[in-house]
Amino acid sequence: MREIIDAAFSEAHIPPSTDREGAKISVLGRKIWCRSSSAVKRDIWVPQGKSLAYQDGQQVPQPDHLIDIDELLITLKGVSSEEELYQLMAVWKGRLSLRLMVLVLNREKDWQRALALHDWMIEKGGYRPSVFAYNIVLRNILRARRWNLGEGLVNEMQERHVLPDKFTYSTLISNFTRAGKFEHALKWLRQMEQEGIAADLITYSTLIELARKVKDYSKAISLFSKLNSVNLYADLILYNTMIDVFGNAKRFQEAKDLLREMREQNITPDTVSYNTLLNVYVENQNFLDALSVFYEMKSVECTADLTTCNIMIDVYGKLDMIKEAERLFWSMRKTGILPNVVTYNNILKMYRDAELLGEAIHLFRLMQKNNIEQNAVTYNTMIEIHGQTLNYEKATKLIQGMQERGIEPNAITYSTLISIYGRAGKYEKAARMFQKLRSSGAQIDEILYQCMLVIYERAGLVGHANRLLLELKQANDVSRERAIGILAKAGKVEEASWLFSKAFDAGKVKYISTFECMVGLFARNKKYSNAIEVHEKLRQVGLFPSSETVLTLLGAYGKLQLFQKAEAFYNEMQEGGCILPDEVHFQMLNVYAATGNLQTVMPLFEKLEMDKNINKKELSLTLAGIYERLNRLDDASHIIKRIDARKKL
């Protein structure tokens, strides 16, 4: 046991010193360090004006209220060696009750001194080992992040027949959790349970929150599911955490089901509950589901806040619901919610995507006139908006404007402007700006390199393009297809599209991932016809899309109201032997529902209901969602009740 503790102390890596600012003391073979002050006189170790209590020639504990704890603590701070510590405490031996010694330990915040004092209590002071004293020392050691020493101290407790209690394990779990040591924290939870000590809700909540932070969603869900078996019930904060956990685990329906479960437990979902669920849907581009949640939020009269409004303005923009977004934006102040820079940026992005140049310029001028906060995102969006009309002069002036306001342009700013120069045919301006950036020492990312590469090739500057490509290859292995992927992920539609077309015509697009990243890029930017064209090229070379791309393409057919083509594509994928996940079948149901005719929905629903491999709960929930969107709320409610009845069975 001592070897473990000795090794832990040796990890402190404190340099040896012989002066009084770093005097070494040895406590039970452990090398620890205490800060010393000026030399301590022996006459202050004994409280002045107080006599010692004796009985039959032996010192006996004095009443606790007669002991000056503050004086003792001040004296302890002056010790600089093991000998001095032991001499000091020898005077107090037999005079302090265990309760008072534990109090002294509790007020001693220095982990090294507390550990030394605790060792004296057991080895020299004649005190019996106490779980309370061990817990205090353990707390100080773990706060100092001495992990091995802390675990060694628990082993020492057990060797001395001191059973760790609930506080011991809670201290271990909470400190390891705060340090991000999830597996260590779980180990102590398991040991706690093996000892028959029940963990409380705070312990479980702490572990679940850490699992969420380290993105170990399966463990978070596993811990949450254990609550009922240990007779614990989640509170509002834990439910909100679990909504985020289920959402990040892509288990969206279970995330939404928690709202109903909360009400069953007499916990009213609050604004954070709904915001968390909204954010989950938006991050996964489930905008219709987000809209449904917002309607529910309003129906139960749950108060929206700034976060709610910012999320919903983004959702409305993605669903082309411009009027609804504007209505929400202009009503915010009336409800006491002040829009912030994120709010304005979301409105500007919506105008950009809808190509509403006039509205965007008007709002931007309003922001400047009223001195509303602006940031790099604001200016980058406005530069993109002017780029839609290839107005490179106004886009250039915006960079000057942002610098005058103390806002530094970033890589996105420059790549956007260079892209505008390229599309406007101003290749010389693009090249000049690129060279200026390089000579200034500014950091140039791969996206900016790729944009410039496309511009050089468009301008016929083959030499420049080859030199730039050589630079890229020296730093990274950048093929044509990887370049397309980089541009697509950066949202550079024009550049990625041009490069993809050129590479495809030259027969240099070989990987399915390249086709699929272009399908995703076009779908995200509402260029659904282009997404379908890429799919047709993919089929020309004899490749089949992945299930995720099938999902995207079905959505594209639905957006273009090409319902028959969507059905033909769905059937082709099935007949081609593709194993389609449930989500693809559910998407086809939603495409049928978009026609407004349930007669096309029900045959597929009944067919899927007969398929033993289909998740029946998710299938029923999909149909319930369709009923809800078609305003057949009674039918939707009936399906939900049927699901609940199955759960009880």
Topology:
Elements: H1 2-10, E1 24-27, E2 30-33, E3 54-55, E4 58-59, H2 69-77, H3 82-92, H4 98-107, H5 111-123, H6 131-143, H7 147-159, H8 166-178, H9 182-194, H10 201-213, H11 217-225, H12 236-248, H13 252-264, H14 271-283, H15 287-299, H16 306-318, H17 322-331, H18 341-353, H19 357-369, H20 376-388, H21 392-404, H22 411-423, H23 427-440, H24 446-458, H25 462-475, H26 480-489, H27 493-505, H28 512-524, H29 528-540, H30 547-559, H31 563-575, H32 582-593, H33 598-609, H34 616-629, H35 633-648
Antiparallel strand pairs: 1-2, 3-4
Measured distance between first and last alpha carbons: 54 Å
Mean pLDDT: 81
Largest sheet features: 2 strands, antiparallel
Structural class: mainly alpha
| Tally of DSSP β-strands | 4
Q: What is the rounded Rg?
A: 34 Å
| Oligomeric form | single chain
Q: Helix count, per DSSP?
A: 35
Structural commentary:
With 649 residues, the protein is mostly helical. It is built from 35 helices and 4 strands. The chain has helices at residues 2-10, 69-77, 82-92, 98-107, 111-123, 131-143, 147-159, 166-178, 182-194, 201-213, 217-225, 236-248, 252-264, 271-283, 287-299, 306-318, 322-331, 341-353, 357-369, 376-388, 392-404, 411-423, 427-440, 446-458, 462-475, 480-489, 493-505, 512-524, 528-540, 547-559, 563-575, 582-593, 598-609, 616-629, 633-648, and strands at residues 24-27, 30-33, 54-55, 58-59. It has a two-stranded antiparallel sheet with strand order 1-2. Strands 3-4 form a two-stranded antiparallel sheet. Helix 4 (98-107) packs parallel to helix 6 (131-143), helix 6 (131-143) runs parallel beside helix 8 (166-178) and helix 10 packs antiparallel against helix 11. The chain is globular and about 90 Å long. Mean pLDDT is 81; it is low at 1-57.
